[in-house]
């Protein structure tokens, strides 16, 4: 799914195309039978890692969150609808997991580092949950990371300013740091929590 401020036929076609592409990639890469509400991309050869900076200036990679499931979303703080909806859902997922919610790390990666300064990013993510982390890179690192995750984003002029079109999927890593799932934007918090619970239970087995 691609975010755009006003849904149009172009939006719907792009969204369908993005999901079809991810589903095709999952079918090629998947090594275990699907048992999730989301798109199972276990064994995928993309979305392997990242090297970005948190709001306190520390460089972060996936290894920093080993032992936790990681749910990762790409967006921007001035997003009018999709990003806040995704983060509200993420907070609900954490609550639905109960005690296992402490084993979930939600990461928000900005695709608008020009405006999403560290102080802005930190205030934005923590408004949804104090444990949520915002990460950023310079323009080149942002582009490279998005490419590694097959994430689409594009600056769209709006008068004297601009907005961002971007993919609206969430990526899930298991506690061993392996990519497992793509969660669709339209999935409910309950469906997502079911998927996360399976991943956490498998890791504990």
Question: Could you please describe the fold and organization of this structure?
Answer:
36% of the residues lie in helices and 24% in strands. With 205 residues, the protein is α+β, with helices and mostly antiparallel strands. It has one domain (2-204): 3-Layer(aba) Sandwich (Glutaredoxin). It is globular, with a radius of gyration of 16 Å.
What's the layout of helices and strands?
Blueprint: E1 2-3, H1 9-29, E2 39-40, E3 52-54, E4 59-60, E5 69-75, H2 82-96, E6 104-110, H3 118-128, E7 133-136, H4 139-148, E8 153-158, E9 161-167, E10 170-173, E11 179-183, H5 189-204
Parallel strand pairs: 5-6, 6-7
Antiparallel strand pairs: 1-9, 2-11, 3-4, 3-7, 5-10, 8-9, 10-11
- CATH class type: Alpha Beta
- Fourth-level CATH superfamily: Glutaredoxin
Strand content: 15-25%
Note the overall shape: globular
Strand order of the largest sheet: 2-11-10-5-6-7-3-4
- Overall structural class, as computed from helix and strand content, comes to alpha+beta
Proportion in helices: 25-40%
Low-confidence runs of at least 5 consecutive residues: 4-16, 26-34
Element-by-element helix/strand order: EHEEEEHEHEHEEEEH
Q: How many H/I helical runs?
A: 5
Rounded radius of gyration (Å): 16 Å
What is the terminal separation in angstroms? 34 Å
Number of strands: 11
Overall mean pLDDT stands at 88
* Biggest pleated sheet: 8 strands, mixed
Structural domains: how many: 1
CATH topology-level fold name: Glutaredoxin
What is the level-2 CATH architecture name? 3-Layer(aba) Sandwich
């Amino acid at each position: 799914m691609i975010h755009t401020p006003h849904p149009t036929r172009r939006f719907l076609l792009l969204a369908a195309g993005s999901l079809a592409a991810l589903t095709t990639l999952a079918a090629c890469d998947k090594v275990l039978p699907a048992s999730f509400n989301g798109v199972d991309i276990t064994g995928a050869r993309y979305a392997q890692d990242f090297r970005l900076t948190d709001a306190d200036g520390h460089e972060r990679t996936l290894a920093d969150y080993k032992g936790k499931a990681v749910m990762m979303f790409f967006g921007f703080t001035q997003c009018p609808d999709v990003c806040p909806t995704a983060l509200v859902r993420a907070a609900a997922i954490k609550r639905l997991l109960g005690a296992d919610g402490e084993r979930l790390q939600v990461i928000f990666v900005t695709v608008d580092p020009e405006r999403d300064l560290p102080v802005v990013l930190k205030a934005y993510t923590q408004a949804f949950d104090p444990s949520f982390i915002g990460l950023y890179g310079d323009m080149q690192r942002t582009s490279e990371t998005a490419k590694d995750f097959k994430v689409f984003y594009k600056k769209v002029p709006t008068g004297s300013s601009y907005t961002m079109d971007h993919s609206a999927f969430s990526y899930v890593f298991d506690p061993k740091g392996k990519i497992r799932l793509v969660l669709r934007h339209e999935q409910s918090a309950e469906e997502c929590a079911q998927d996360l619970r399976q991943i956490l239970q498998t890791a504990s087995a």
